[in-house]
Amino acid sequence: MAGLGDPAKRMAFSPPASLLEADEPELERLDIKHHITQLLTGGNLHFAPLAKPNRILDIGTGTGIWAIEMAEQYPNAQVIGTDLSPIQPQWVPDNVRFEIDDCEAKTWAWPEDHFDYIHSRYMIASIGNWASLIRKAYKHTKPGGYFELQELDCRFTSDDNTLLPTHSLSSWSSLITEAACAYNRPIPRYTDYLSWFEKAGFVDIRQQIFKCPTNPWPKNKTLKEAGKFQLLAHIEGFEGISIGLLTRGLDWKAEEVKVLMAKVRPELKNRSIHSYQRKVFVVGRKPEKSASEPSTTGKTIHTSTLRYGGGTAPPTPGSAASPSSAVGSPTATGGHGHDETGPAPPDQINAFTPNMPLKQEVIDASRREADEG
To answer: At residue 39, what are phi and psi to the nearest 5 degrees?
Structure first.
């Protein structure tokens, strides 16, 4: 589901751990999530300041859409996408290939200090030990190279108290994180990743946080578009992931989960509830092996919540204008739209220009506005 990561994309070969079947609707949903991310980030595939990377690794590649687009953006790079499930297309650019591999295996198939850039995203509910995964990424990144993690904190929240603790969405957030922990797939908070990057040894660690609306409640055109597709992804994947985790982690019966879903579904569609989930992007650089650069852990940690006025162009990743370079400085909040039903959340992100329309008539007009919700 869109609110969680994509255990299906990694675990289709591991029946005891699989939460969603990697069928056609699920693959389509994964591409919808890619589209949502492109909307929120202004079409940026990455925020690491890459120049001319030679070797790129995409962990848990899913449908392979990110790896394919990176291969097109960097035609001189060799892009490898790994997954436990061979669900990627056969016709791809010459400089991309897909391999079956388990990122949680004790050892990886490649040498240490090998990749210029390693990328991972939307793996929550798929990883048992996040600190270990980040350490492995550090080990296999070349000195001077980058690891970028793009994840989602599935916990619903709001800035204007339109989402209350008594709402079923709030209950779901608590239950699903409790179930994931019991199932040995803990779901980190968006604030957890920085310390793992630092302890692994990365330097120049930068974090950016995006807020993704649950439905089309914002007035801002791009945020409304993101919310429309987010709602579609929720509606199509919410019940499956909830049954998968709640029945295995908390021993619920499927019928009990469906009762909860009947309460949650109307709140997902309710535009008077200004709920959102946070997407966190963390980038770290592996220090050079030289006397000129001390082998210290990442003490230059920068974090920012992106808040741009409508129409502001996205900064160049890694540039001086990048929001992560201006830690502690106030950022404009003007121009973000909110629904007539309440005040605008003061911290709401303003997304950028959409990247491209989705195929299949924009997924059948977002499944007829998520079943006319």
So the answer is: -60, -45
